[in-house]
Amino acid sequence: MENLQPVVPTTSTPRRRPLFLGGLLLFLAGPALYAVQVSLGHLWMAWYMPLLASLGVVLMIASVRQRRSVLRGAALAFFALLCGGEWYLMLVAARTPAYTGPAEPGSKLPPFATVLADGTPFTNQDVEQEVRSVLVFNRGRW
Distance (Å, rounded) from C-alpha 68 to C-alpha 63? Predict the structure, then answer.
């Protein structure tokens, strides 16, 4: 007679989705895309960075809710703080200050004198005498 072993059903744990890793990759995709953007010489506002970071944090939250651990919780707190810092930099620190310069709409130009590209002088009186001209006021921070 053969030696028959009873078959014991094995319970396999359901495979969990790698949500935390996905969140981490989304979080890191923002700075990677920004590095590519800068290396190409494009210097526009990187709105995608805090958006990708927020999506990454949402995935990390789902991962921590699925499987709680101290390490995941600490990593979530760290990346949530970084995400908040990205939003702060984007919405508050990079905001252009209110214009308080001398040229206001509807008011007279302040006195000025400059030299045109061909070397002729140009002043505010030339504008008042209706000499055809275009004035461009560049507003910025250095």
Answer: 8
Question: Rounded distance, CA 125 to CA 13, Å?
Answer: 83
Give CA separation, 76 vs 21, 27, 39, 81, 115, in Å: 11, 11, 30, 9, 58
pLDDT at site 22: 93
- Of 78, 83, 75, residue with least CA distance to 19: 75
31 exposed, middle or buried (CB, 10 Å; 0-12, 13-18, 19+)?
middle
Question: How far is residue 140's CA from residue 43's CA, in Å, rounded to a whole number?
Answer: 15
Joined together, the tokens standing for residue 16 give 């969990």
Q: Tell me the average pLDDT across 89-118.
A: 80
pLDDT, mean of residues 35-39:
92
- Span of 56-60, 64-68, 78-82 with lowest mean pLDDT: 64-68
Q: Residue 7: CA atoms inside 13 Å, Cβ hemisphere, count?
A: 1
Strand ranges in the chain using DSSP code E only, listed in sequence order: 113-115, 121-123
